[in-house]
Amino acid sequence: MTDLIQARSSSKRDRLVRAACSLFHQRGVGHTSLADIAKTADVQIGNVYYYFKTKDDIIRAVIDSHADHLRAGLKSLDRHRSPAARLTAFVREVVKTGPDTARYGCPHGTLCSELGRRDDDLTGAASVLMGIRLDWARAQFQAMGRTDADDLAYTLVAQIQGAALLANTFRDPAVLVGQTRRLQRWIKDLAGLE
Questions:
Q1: Model's pTM, two decimal places?
Q2: What is the CATH number of the domain that holds 7?
Q3: How sure is the predictor about 2, in pLDDT bands with cuts at 50, 70 and 90?
Q4: pLDDT by residue (tens digit) across 84-119?
Q5: Read out DSSP for 132-160?
Q6: CB contact at 8 A, 188 and 82
Q7: Are residues 32 and 74 in the same domain?
Q8: How far lies 65's CA from each of 53, 88, 143, in Å?
Q9: Which of 7, 19, 161, 176 is most buried when burial is the number of CB atoms within 10 A of its CB?
Q10: Which residue range(s) make up the domain with 143?
């Protein structure tokens, strides 16, 4: 019986976090209330406070959820044999988000940008999302033997975030397609594959 209760509780909490992830991406943190999250998750508003005492608590849970998914996604790229193949696959994943990115922007970039305007610990908490990407990309470039791996990692992440911003600004997923092709050629050049 206790396992069943915990499973149901976990399910409600997970639904709340998934709803918050979606709403924060589509509307932004500032335009999303706990009541909005409860309604989207189909959970009574009182239950929200059982899991999250404040809106900041659910924001932290959203950041943690994004970080977990990001780490898992990057880990899945290990199936590619070479660092260049892993980097290329990483860039290709960006295109898959094209329509959503064109409509709402990058979920991580917009969250970092919005929370970056605050003057509290959530600014630093959100920066982990970019840090995970940078650390992973740096490791790939180092595995390629690049002594400028740090600079290359920043360039890659900045290019992806810039492409996401432009795709969102112009509501055009084709911007992502064009920029990711350019990045794929750049990675091949850096690896000496062309």
A1: 0.92
A2: 1.10.10.60
A3: very low
A4: 999 999 999 999 999 999 999 999 999 999 999 998
A5: HHHHHHHHHHHHTT-TTHHHHHHHHHHHH
A6: no
A7: no
A8: 18, 24, 28
A9: 176
A10: 59-191
